[in-house]
Amino acid sequence: MKLLKHILFAALFVFSGINLIAQEKGQEEIDPSKPTNFYTQLINQLEYNSRKSGGDIMGYRGEIQFAPSESHLFLAELPLLYNDKSGKFGLGDARLRYFYLPYKNYDKFIGAFGPSIDIFMPTGNYEHGLGSSSWLIQPGVTVGLMIADWIQMFPILSYQYTSKPSSDLIPEELKKDQNGLSFQIITPIIFSEKFFMQVTPVYTASNFGDERQDRYIQELFGQYKISSKLQASFFYRGVFEDEDHTMRLGLVVFL
Question: What is the pTM of this model?
Fold first, then answer.
């Protein structure tokens, strides 16, 4: 609980600073349908994860995105989860991300380009079914393809490094570092000025070793504009081979 209090206090401090900086950008038109448009925002999500094994997980996922300019995006994500099999509630695996966008010109076919790095930290308790007990580090690169006015695609290619698990519940012979890659294509579909969706097929090969763990994953994301600074969202992620399905309902506050 002491750690959680420190985290919440730090988040409040960062949130206050972000709000002051973001006031200067308050009159800009907001178009979050393209992942290469950066905005300072607070995202609150209720989550339910149905899994074949290990217990179902539900809870709250808070995310802060800070965009000091059109070229830089910082993200911090903190989940508070409950596992119905273990009956335990606590902190899940936290996430940090940095995205740098040196080029953006939507009048060109290649409308955007930039590298990013995603880090998932093993802050969740593996024994309670709330974490992975491994670090996941994903450096990647994003390209924006402006195919037509009505359709754009944003391919993302990432290298994946998964560290050796630290939990004593995992047999020692299974504790190995893993190297792999993932490839996804985010395709925005704009239905109106208020509502858009993103359809994202994902292919992952998380282990190039002898025991391949290739997966096809399908993600769907939608967002509806309630007001100029407030939007509602939903998210679905299906890992069909593992019978793993995640659903989230969110409220997005642009700062």
Answer: 0.86
